[in-house]
Structure formats: C-alpha cells, structure tokens
Amino acid sequence: MTSTLRPPPPAPPRSPATAPSPAPRSPRRRRSWRQALRRDWQLYSLAILPLLFFLVFRYLPMLGNVIAFRRFKPGGSIFGEYWVGLRYFRMFFTDPTFWEVFTNTLVLGTLTLLFCFPLPIVLALLLNEVRARRFKRFVQSVSYLPHFLSIVIVAAMVMQLTSIDGTANQLVRIVGGDPVAFLQQAEWFRTIYVSSEVWQTVGWGTILYLAALTTIDEDLYEAARIDGASRLRQTWHVTLPGIRPTMVTLLILNIGSFMAVGFEKILLLYNPLTYPTADVISTYLFRMGFQSSNFSYAAAIGLFEAMIGLILVLSANLISRRTVGTSLW
C-alpha cells in the first residue's frame, strides 16, 4: 500500500503582540574631522589659498586697530607710542566736518541701495519673460559688459561724457541750453555717481536672480494658470516667493557694505568743489591718513565705521529671520 504525504497545516497568524519586532538598526558612526580630512584632503587643500588671503589681508590688519587708542608716529612702533584712550573718538565726534562726511555717506549709501538693489531683480524678471533666445543673450551680454570695465576706465568715461564738450552738454546745446560743468557742481555729483553705479552693476546683479529663477518648479506656474492667474499674478505669487531667499541674502550683504560706498570711483570723480556732497567716510579717511599723516585719527574713524557696518548686518539678519524666515545664519 502506498501512503500519501499530507502537507503540514498552516501556522496560525500571529497577533501583533506576538509578532517579532524588526531588528534595531545599528547607529551610523559619525566620522571625525581627522578622518574626513584624511579622506578628502585634496578638496580641503583647495581652501588653503582663500584662507591665507583672508588671514593676511582681513584678519591680521585688525591688529592695527589698536592705534585708534594709542598715539602713532610714522617711523615708530606699528602699535603706537603710548596710550591715549578715547581721545581720537572724542575728536571726530566733535568735528563738524566728520558729521558732514557721515551724512554724505548715509545719503549716497541709501541712494545706491534704493536703485542698485531692486533694478537687477526687475531686469531678471523681464529677461525671464523673453522667449527670443538671441535677443535675450544680446541683452545679457550688453548689460554684463560694464561690470568688467576697470573703475579707472568708468571714471574716465564719466568725465568725458559730463565735460563741457561731452555728450551730455552736446544734448543740452541741442535743446537750447547752456553748457554745465557737471563734475564741478556739488548738486550734480550724487546723480552722476548713482547713475554710473547703476549702469555698471545692474547687469551683473541679474546673474544670481536668473539662476534662482531656474529652480522654481514649473508645476507651480501651471497650477497658477489653471486658477486663472495672469502673468503679473504669477510673478507676484510664484516668481518672487521663489527667489526670496536669494533676494534676502543679497540685501543683507548690500546692507553690510552700506557704509563702504564706492571709494575708488568717488576718489577719481570728486574734487574740492564737490566735497559738500561727494566726500564720504572712506575718502575722508584717505585724506586724514595719507595726506595729513594722522593715522590714529583715521583708524578711530575706520573702527567706528566698521562697528556701524557690523550692527547693520546683525540687525538686518535678525529682522529678516523674524519677519521673512530667511537669513544668512
């Protein structure tokens, strides 16, 4: 007789209480900085030159700020001869010329920020709407070109355009006016400076915004179109929120350099006739330090300017983090 083998009955399903729990994963070991440095030393070696640059040209010169509190004499010790405390700070706080220079710095910095910060955003939004690639590349090339010109060349061009026989005065003669010596009249300096700054920086400033525009999801525009949003509404509710982190970051960086208004360009364009509106803290420091050899007085003003810049950056970063939710740190 042959017997048939029957399969064993299926095991009853286990309740969740008796089901075996999955084995716990072993915690991932975190590499120490020595292990990371040993593994990727080629990549870290690329940071040596930038770090040396900042060490030599940014951090080591900070030691010289001590002469703002010490009497410095050319040819003597680089850290000053003897301690004078806050003498030089009291000097420029009671100096009417300094407050005139300080006001000019605030005015030029505000005008530069008001015009040079939003215009790259507007230009980037306009270029983003252009569909003709050749025209778009042409506009980008033309707007980028001034950034690569030297400050000396830009200043020479401004002088030629605003001279008595320059292009600006030729247009004035065409409409029947009299020639104007623009760079010899204090009331024209701010207009000339801000206009040249816009012409030189706006095109270059659009690069980061155009790169940020490429990261916005196209599905958001599609959803906005389905909801009936116009192009203006799409820009306001989709495009601008998409590039808001970039805008906030650049705004904080621009506020950080608010007090350091373009020293080189102003130094090349201004003259004693335009001092009432053109002289800023950086040019005043240059005259006090190198022309008057009053290095301790100039160091005190420079330290005061740096402290204001630091306060502006920290305040802008704090306000941005609490109101917008985006900040540098």
Explain what you see.
It is a single chain. The chain is mainly alpha-helical and 329 residues long. Helices cover 63% and strands 1% of the residues. It contains 17 helices and 2 strands. It has a two-stranded antiparallel ribbon. Helix 4 packs across helix 17. The longest helix has 29 residues. It is globular. 18% of the residues are buried.
Topology (SSEs and partners):
Elements: H1 33-39, H2 41-45, H3 48-59, E1 70-71, E2 82-83, H4 87-93, H5 96-116, H6 118-129, H7 133-144, H8 151-161, H9 167-174, H10 186-213, H11 218-226, H12 231-242, H13 244-256, H14 263-269, H15 275-278, H16 281-291, H17 295-323
Antiparallel strand pairs: 1-2
Name some characteristics of this structure:
single chain; 329 residues; mainly alpha; 17 helices; 2 strands; 63% helix; globular; disordered N terminus
Write a concise synopsis of the structure shown.
This protein has 329 residues and is an all-alpha fold. It contains 17 helices and 2 strands. The longest helix is centred in the last third of the chain and has 29 residues, at 295-323.
